[in-house]
Amino acid sequence: MAYRFDNLKLEKGMYGQRGRSFTQVLEAEDPDIQYRGTALEGMDAYQRQLKRFDIKVKGAGSDVVEKFFRTSQSAVLFPEYIARSVRQGMEEADILPDLVAAVTRFDGLDYRTLTSASGDEKALRRVEEGAAIPATTVKTQSNLVKLHKRGRMLVASYEAIRYQKLDLFSVTLKQIGAYIGRMLVEDAIDVLVNGDGNNNAAVSYVVGTSPIGGTKGTLSYDALVDFWAQFEPYEMNTMLAPGDVVVDMLKLTEFQNPLTGLNFQGTGKLTTPMGAKLLRTSAMTGGRLIGLDKRYALEMVQSGDGVAVEYDKLIDRQLERAAITTTCGFAKIFAEAAKVLSV
After folding, report:
1. HSE on the CB side for 248, CA within 13 Å?
2. SS3 of 151, please?
């Protein structure tokens, strides 16, 4: 049986198409649906091209980098391999899905997020006969969301890497992705704490200062309960903290409950007696934690497909300096859905 993927003409012009990734361009030419019930079912359009040119990118039998450059068409696949490896590194230790309520893909530089009336104006009141129904106003924010380009430079000549195994080369690329992911977490934390420029910084509390009980400088379970109580009508379902604060939490008697310890020892996932998911990150400064309702707190605005590479340099083997970048920003959705506690 002849398949469409065997006859596709690959060219550099498949990259950089507005609103479509390289894989989406391939998919338009070679739809997945036509492979249902065949041995190729489950592969996406890019993976079918790797099969076409017999390029193995992982495992003990992985090929060397040079395999991509055996033909001019197979060389077109190399930038997507770079992007996928970097994206995998970003995702392996990514805590953003636990912080972000919505991801918006946006092709442009100027983006305004939505906001709505807060407080009592959101409440659903009883409407008497003939009375006007209360309105909730939804509008765009006054200030633009700032999109930042973050990235790393891949510095390597083709001669230096041509005989490297692809699975080993992927490790380096995944590390680049991990660095980029950390930068994005730092951006997200900055917006959660300081706001996005629309007068929506998080309310900050201090242990030992009303309404938070306890003694300043010491983290106690009572202080955490008081902090949890400040989220009504939202729900504190996520807690973000640096290593020193997490250590102090785990030493609390209440956190040594057998069921809490069993969950941590069995799954490696940190949870709290209040039911919130506890995330540890070195992207935060010591001595404070962030509590948030991840359903309503943060929007991630992403430009393009997420990871961008300088495909011209990669395809043409001029690898001395090829940029790997991602452009995105963060916006507060509801300011009251995230709060800060300083010990």
Report:
1. 17
2. strand
Which residue bears the tokens 């395809």?
A: 315
Buried b / exposed e along 179-196 (16+ C-beta atoms within 10 A): bbbbbbbebbbebbbebb
The angle subtended at Cα 302 by Cα 196 and Cα 166, nearest 5°, is 135
CA dihedral 321, 88, 300, 267 (to 10 degrees): -140
**Distance, CA of 239 to CA of 292 (rounded, Å):** 7
Helix axes 166-194, 78-92, angle to 10 degrees: 50
The CA distance from 229 to 235, in Å, is 9
Distance, CA of 213 to CA of 276 (rounded, Å): 20
Geometric angle at alpha carbon 123, from 98 and 225, rounded to 5°: 45
Q: Determine whether 264 is exposed, middle or buried from the number of CB atoms within 10 Å of its CB (0-12, 13-18, 19+).
A: middle
Task: Please give the angle made by the CA atoms of 231, 236 and 241, to the nearest 5 degrees.
Answer: 115
pTM for the predicted model, two decimal places: 0.82
Q: Tell me if residue 29 falls in helix, strand or coil.
A: helix
Residue with tokens 């991990």: 178
Residue 309: strand pairing partners: 324
Backbone angles phi, psi at 241, to 5 degrees: -150, 150
Q: Which residue has the higher pLDDT, 314 or 103?
A: 103
Q: Are 67 and 45 in contact (CB under 8 A)?
A: no
Res 227: pLDDT? 94
Residue with tokens 């917006």: 191
DSSP secondary structure letters along 287-336: TEEEEE-TTTSEEEEE-TTS-EE-HHHHHTT--SSEEEEEEEEEEES-GG
pLDDT by residue (tens digit) across 121-143?
Answer: 455 566 667 677 766 666 667 67
- What is the C-alpha to C-alpha distance for residues 223 and 274, in angstroms, rounded to an integer? 12
Output 317 or 55, whichever has higher pLDDT.
55
The residue count for the chain: 343
Q: Is the pLDDT at 303 greater than 90, yes or no?
A: no
